[in-house]
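help with these tokens:
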Amino acid sequence: MAMAAPWFLYIPLIFTLYIFTKHFFHKLRNLPPAPILNLPFIGHLYLLKKPLYRSLAKISGRYGPVVLLQFGSRRVLVVSSPSAAEECLTKNDVIFANRPHLLAGKHLGYNYTSLAWTSYGDHWRNLRKISSIEILSTHRLQMLHWIRVDEVKSKIRSLNRASEQRRVVDMKTVFFELTMNAVMRMIAGKRYYGENVEEVEEARLFREIVKDTLRLGTEYGTSCR
């Protein structure tokens, strides 16, 4: 125990040297500003609190409109000004078009081959072309306009009944179910949320899959491949 005490005293010094060394190399590489305290393994995750947008706004207010953060093993660029966002999304859009290879993309995105997870290239352009023509074209959206109108009317009737019964309504859930029903009716011709669900068991399984996908996507958010 007597020999261990001097070594223990070096830990704060080693940690301080680690922090300042990372900060020095960060400056040397001409990267955007970042909080100086970049902890091992977790990076800047300790700065995040709910709600997330307020935490990021506070960081941007202190370090500027473009901030480079470290979330675990991943670097995250936080852009909070219109001019910087335009620089990223118009002049350098090809550079920022690639998706990070996270575990969510591997397990939930068919090994990074779906439109949401594949990197910019021929495969992505082909998927985007198919989506634009078959699903998102003006003609196609006009053909399916009645579905969106029908779903909005259904939700309004549901909200009206809830108002008459003086029930509390979670609007976040209402908008989520409205969006999912509209999308799934356009794609598969079926409703899976709310009232008038025809195939109850299939709808239940679908809701469970969506719930698990959203949960796993959040957990995998900062995980590397």
About this structure: The two ends are 42 Å apart (CA to CA).
